[in-house]
Amino acid sequence: MVYIRTIIGLYANVLGQPQLLIKLSGLMLVLLVAYRIAAVWFHHWLFFGESPAASAAIFEQNSLLLGAITVAYLLICAWLLVVFSVRWHRYALLNADEDRFFAVGLGKRGRLFAWNSFLILLWLVLAGVLYWIAVLILLPVANNVVFGSGTSGEALSMGYKFSFVLAGSSSFLDSFQLTGLTITDQSPYVAMALKIGFLLICTYLIARMSLVYPAIALGFRMRLSDSWQETRRHGLRITGLLIVMSVPAIVGSEFSFQVGPIAEIPPWLMIAVDAVAQSLFFVISVALFASAFSYAYKTLGLPLRPPQSQRTAEPSEVA
User: Of the residues 12, 16, 200, 240, which has the maximum number of CB atoms within 10 A of its CB?
Assistant: First the structure.
C-alpha cells in the first residue's frame, strides 16, 4: 500500500503541475516541438512523390547534411535535458523553482551531471556487449537441446544497430535482431524475452547508479561507486519504481495522433498536435524518472545540504 501511494504521489507531483513542468523544462520543450514539426515538413519536402529508389538516392546525396543536423539537434537536446533534470531534482528535493524559462547555462553541476550520464551510458554499452556475447554462446545450446542438431538452425547471426530514439524506450528492444536458429524463428517470444531481459538489466544498473543525479543537483560530489554502495539491498525496489515510471515513455513511443473519419482537421494541425503530444510525453517521462531518483535519495536518508567543502557549485551557478 505504501508503494502504491508513493507511485501515485510521484505521478501526481508531475502531472498535477503543468505550469511548473513547462517552466522548468524551458527551451527543451520548445525545441522538441519545433524539431518534430520541422522534421516532418522537411521529410515531406525532400521525398514527396519520389519512388523508394529515388528516395534512397536523395537520402544518400544528403546524408552528411542530415547527419549533421541530427547530431547538432541531439547535442543541443542533451544540453537542455541536463538543465531540466537538474532543475527538477532541485524542485523535488528542495522545492526550488527559481529558475527562469530561458536560463540554459549548465554550470559546474550541470557539466558533472552530463559527465556521469556519459559514464552510465558506457556501463550500459558494456553490459549489452557482455549480455549478448552470453546469448550467442548459450542460445545455440538451447536450440540443440529443444530441437536437436538436425534442425535448419545451424548458425546464429546477430544484427546490431545503435539508434537514438528521443521519445520512448523501444530502441534497446529493437537494437538486436536474432536470426538463424529454429528456437528464435519458430518462437518469437524467446527473442522478445531476451531483449526484455537486456532492458531489465539496464534498468537495474541505472537504478543502482541513479543517486549521483540528485546528489549532483544538490551540490554533492558523488561517484557512481558511492551510489552503488548506498543502494545495496534496495536495487530491486528502485528498479521496480523506474519500470512503473517508464509507462509514459512506452506509451509515447507508440503514440500517433489519429484523426477519425468524421473529423476534418488540416494536416498541419495534426502534425502540430502530434509533435506537442510526443514532446510532452518525453518531458513528463524525464520528470518522472528524476522524481523517482530523488525519492530514492531522500528515502535512503541522504543529506540535502552539503557542507562547503563538498559543494560542486554555488546555487547561483546552477541553471
Answer: 240
* 285 grid coordinates: 517521462
Rounded CA gap, 122 and 124, in Å? 5
For the question of whether the overall pTM of this predicted structure is more than 0.85, the answer is no
Helix or strand (DSSP H, E) at 204? helix 188-209
Cβ distance 256 to 310 under 8 Å? no
The set of residues, in sequence order, having a beta carbon less than 8 Å from that of 266 and lying 6+ positions away, is: none
Q: Nearest 5°: phi and psi at 293? A: -60, -45
Candidates 213, 193, 241, 230; CA nearest to 312 is 213
Q: Helices 107-147 and 188-209, interaxial angle, to 10°?
A: 150
Q: Per-residue pLDDT averaged across 28-48, rounded?
A: 80
- Rounded to whole angstroms, the Cα distance separating 204 from 244 reads 13
pLDDT in tens, 215-234: 999 988 889 999 999 999 99
Q: How many CA atoms lie within 13 A of 116 on its CB side?
A: 27
Q: Is 28 left (phi over 0), alpha (psi -120 to 50) or beta?
A: alpha
